[in-house]
Each structure stands twice: as structure tokens, then as C-alpha cells.
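From the shared-data thread, chain only:
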Amino acid sequence: MRGTSQASHDAVLRGFETVLIGAGKDGLAIGDQLFSVVDALDASGSLRRALTDPARPGTDKGDLVRALFGKLDAPVQDILVALVTARWSDEEDLAQSVENAGVAAVLAYAESKGELIALEEELFRVERLLSGERELLVAMSNRSATKQARLALLEGVFGGKLNTVTHALLIRAVGVPRGRRLMPAIEAFLVSAAQRRDRSIANVTAAVELSAAQRTRLASILLDAYGREVQINVAVDPEVIGGIRVQVGSEVVDGTILSRLDQARRRLVG
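Structure, as C-alpha cells:
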């Protein structure tokens, strides 16, 4: 998403934030309703075109939203009206913006219950598990399988082991991938959760688990570097031999012995 669409997305979701702050326990229901709208948009090209047609008056598009989705809660109708009266450079961007609003609502629910940190930790553990279980990842991401089959597999592995919000997000990512691969979808959830707490995520790979003192020191270093708190997620990989690898977004600081040995090997072989 870029240009006009990105500007519309950002402006509407900033306004939606005031609704989410006061939504409390209703955030989960708001998210579910927004996801249902995404599914309707994905299923109908004519609906997407009608709601993003720049030649059609915004009031007409707003009236169409209320006619089609009048049974949804008022906050859901209001943000849909705000979205369709904005301008979009691509009709697909409208559906993605509704999806992002749904994720924001679910995360706001987790925040209202004090479960945002727990959500991040659970998503990170799921991500690490799927990274190490390639067959499970492929099966859960298999677009040739039915939605019901993928969700049954999700339930078989994680059923009853996750909190409500983690479970809801994974059901969305596995059941309705919308062209996304599963691992990037989970990573996007992690980034959104971190942004909700005005933090970034540092994915750290180390030979051994970091001590509390080491975590505190690393958090301080990252705070100085980025000017905000950074959530530290640590994965232990004995193969790195020593040192740590830190990735924040697209930035990687690799200080592992294995990395230095590999760099030396490359220099030796030219």
C-alpha cells in the first residue's frame, strides 16, 4: 500500500484509535465483524469497485455501507463509512485497511485485559515452533486443503493452549490467508502488537539463554539506539557457538562467532 491509499489508511485508523481505546471487551467483537466485511469484499469484485469508485459521491458509498452492513455494531459501520469515503489508488487496499482495522480492534481488546505482552510471547513461541516444524508449517499453510482442514490442524496442535486473542489471530491467518504466507502474517501480528505498546521487537538468537542482567543491558542498548523501548524475544540456537544475533525490523546486528568464522572463511577462499 502506498501513496493515496496509505494516506487514507493512516488517517482513518488514527481516528479509529479513539474508538478502540474505549471499546474494552467489545474490541474482540468489533474485530470479528470487520473480518466478516473483509471476507465480503474479497468475495465480490463489484462491491469493491462500488465502494472505491472515485467518481461516486462519498455519501452514496456511505449509504451503501449502512444498507449492506446495517446489522453490524455502530463503531464498525462508522469506520467503514470513513474508509469508503476516503480515496484509494487500488481497490484491494480498501479490504486490506479493513483487515488492519480488525487486527487493531483485536489487539485493543488484548490491551484492555492486560494480555498484550502475553499475546506477543505466545505468538513468538508459535512462530519458533513452526520454524522448527517444517512439515507442520507446510500443512497449515496448504492452500489446496480446505479451510476446515487447516483449522482442524491448528486446533489439533494449539487447541486449548493459547489465550483467546492469540487463538483468534491465528484462526484468521490460517483460515483466511488472503494471499499471505503464514509466517509473515504472524510476524505482522507481532509488529502490530509491539507498535500498540509503542515498542519495537528485537528477535535475538543466542547460543544460550540470556540472563536477566544481559537482557537488561541489551534492552538499555536498544533503547539508546532506537529512542524507545524494544521488546526482546530470545531464541536459543547452540549452532551459533557464541555471541548473539539481533534483528530489529530489517536491521541485523550479527555478532555471533559463527558469523565471524563464516566471514573469515569467505575471505580465505576469496
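The chain has 13 helices and four strands.
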